[in-house]
Amino acid sequence: MEIFERNYKLFYLPVVFLSLFLTHGSFALQSQTEKINLEDINQIRDIGSIDVSKDADLIAYTVSSVDQKNDEYDTDIWMLNSKKDSDKLIVRSGYAPKFSPDSNYVAYLAPGRGKYSDYQQLWFFNTKNGTKRQITKIESSVTDFEWSPDGRRVAMVINVQPEREDEGETQKPYVIDRY
């Protein structure tokens, strides 16, 4: 049964990726005489960070697009329900979605609230009731994370900037002479 589930997921992921690409891609059919311009390129949406729930019923993924007005990328998290054949936006300005081992939560990174809005924080999205909760409240950015196998803990990589006494002095580089 385990081999069937693994093969099912291996078959299912490319199909899902292709369907996401076709449904969210903003490619227009153009005649050969039309040329692609910068505005056309900025309309392309990029799909990435795909994670599949344990039972393969839910698929979390990111969609990135260009915000020309603010000259930046916007990345949002979407959830596809393969049983209902529907998808919905679950988080604006979030990225790196990862299902908990029991598939009850999707952990992701997004700007925090209040005084933490300048830092990327760890959030949980409850797949059962649709609620979101900010897990970390630290004045540093979480850059990566991973669920423990039992789903009770999350290991995080946090970008901590050390306070330096002498701001004008450049730190000496580390030299590694072994390989």
Descriptive report:
It is a single chain. By secondary structure, the chain is of the alpha+beta class. It has a single domain (2-159), classed as 6 Propeller (Neuraminidase), CATH 2.120.10.30. The chain contains 2 helices and 10 strands; from the N terminus they run H-H-E-E-E-E-E-E-E-E-E-E. The chain has helices at residues 2-24, 38-42; strands spanning 46-52, 58-67, 72-81, 86-91, 95-99, 105-111, 120-126, 132-134, 141-147, 154-159. The strands form 3 sheets. The chain has a 4-stranded antiparallel β-sheet with strand order 1-2-3-4, with helices on one face. A hairpin with a 5-residue loop joins strand 7 and strand 8. InterPro entries: 6-blade_b-propeller_TolB-like. This is Dipeptidylpeptidase IV N-terminal domain-containing protein.
Based on the coordinates given, report the CATH architecture. Answer: 6 Propeller
Taken in chain order, the helices and strands follow as HHEEEEEEEEEE
Count structural domains.
1
In terms of per-residue confidence, which ranges show pLDDT below 50 for 5 or more consecutive residues?
Answer: none
Number of strands: 10
Through-space gap between termini: 43 Å
What is the assigned CATH homologous superfamily?
Answer: TolB, C-terminal domain
Shape: globular
The side-by-side strand order for the widest beta sheet comes to: 1-2-3-4
Q: Write the CATH fold name.
A: Neuraminidase
**Largest sheet report:** 4 strands, antiparallel
CATH level 1 name: Mainly Beta
- How much beta, percentage-wise? 35-45%
**Radius of gyration, whole Å:** 20 Å
Helix content: 10-25%
Protein name: Dipeptidylpeptidase IV N-terminal domain-containing protein
